[in-house]
Amino acid sequence: MTEELIQREDAGGIATLTLNRPAALNALSDAMIAALTDALARLADDRSVRVVVLRGAGRAFCAGHDLKEMQAARAQPDRGAAAFADLFARCATMMQALPALPQPVIAEVQGIATAAGCQLAASCDMVVAAEDARFGVNGVNIGLFCSTPMVALTRKVPPAIAFEMLTTGEFLSAARAREVGLVNRIAPPGHLAAETRKLAETLAAKLSAAVHIGKRSFYDQQGLPLAEAYALTGARMTENMLWRDTEEGINAFLEKRKPDWAD
Fold first, then answer.
1. In a 3-state reduction of DSSP, which class is residue 105?
2. What pTM does this model have?
3. Which GO molecular function annotation, any one, does this entry have (predicted)?
4. Is 258 helix (H, G, I), strand (E, B) or coil?
5. Angle at the Cα of 156 (from 86 to 88), degrees rounded to 5?
6. SS3 for 9?
7. Same domain, yes or no: 189 and 87
8. CB atoms within 10 A of CB 159
9. Are residues 80 and 177 in the same domain?
């Protein structure tokens, strides 16, 4: 594997993307955001990839934005206003690319996921965390409220929990993060990669077209009025039912055999 900011490794239909700035706790520099945006765009059209795993190199998942880089922008005549607006817009585009991917995305979190790093984990479809991992939106501790990380966080955890995290700057343990819905699974020491791989392989074994339409429907129906949500998902299920592979899957279930999918 090369020393690029985003390392990619494919095996068994699973693409693993590794944030590769371990000395900076994988902080989201301008270059890192650009590299991850590009990597996600490539995955969107890659039919050989059925599941994506996002992880960090070294001892942390991601420590958020690169504060040194942000402070340097204050030297501009506008005190960095244009640079900050551009940074947050590009970061938001990258975060939105994760739920927009057709493939399920699993965050594999070790160490810390803080501020925009917590946002990154929450923007993934699922999270597997090490037992000693910690999650925080702690910008308030340095006088910067985590307003953009709040968007992803409030779509994963109850409002009161999110507000407490945002206003106190306190961290959640992996166990607490699982209790409130931010984390799906917790791995014991030394087993994080194996636990993540196990989940990824389970997803990769499904009919990928069904997972793709299901993921799209999952996000599209959120926030819709009840009747509109049922109308949308009913239409998607009708579409799904007419596929050859779905017909074969149902026949195989009824006949107690393994489906012969073209997928």
1. strand
2. 0.96
3. hydro-lyase activity
4. coil
5. 5
6. strand
7. yes
8. 9
9. yes
Asked if residue 1 belongs to a domain, the reply is no
The residue behind tokens 């994760």 is: 98
Do 117 and 63 form a contact (C-beta atoms < 8 A)?
yes
Closest CA to 33 of 128, 80, 97, 77: 97
DSSP designation for 62: B
User: Does the pLDDT of residue 189 top 90, yes or no?
Assistant: no
106 bridge partner residues: 53, 126
Domain count, the chain: 2
In tens, the pLDDT along 132-143 reads 999 999 999 999
**212 and 200 assigned to the same domain:** no
Alpha helices in 2-80 (DSSP H): 30-44, 67-72
SS3 content of the chain, % helix, strand, coil (to 5): 50, 15, 30
Residue 178 lies in a domain: yes
* pLDDT tens digits for range 109-136: 999 999 999 999 999 999 999 999 999 9
> Which whole-number Å values give the CA distances from 199 to 122, 126, 147, 195, in the listed order?
17, 10, 31, 6
Q: Which residues span the domain enclosing 53?
A: 6-204
pLDDT at 2: 41
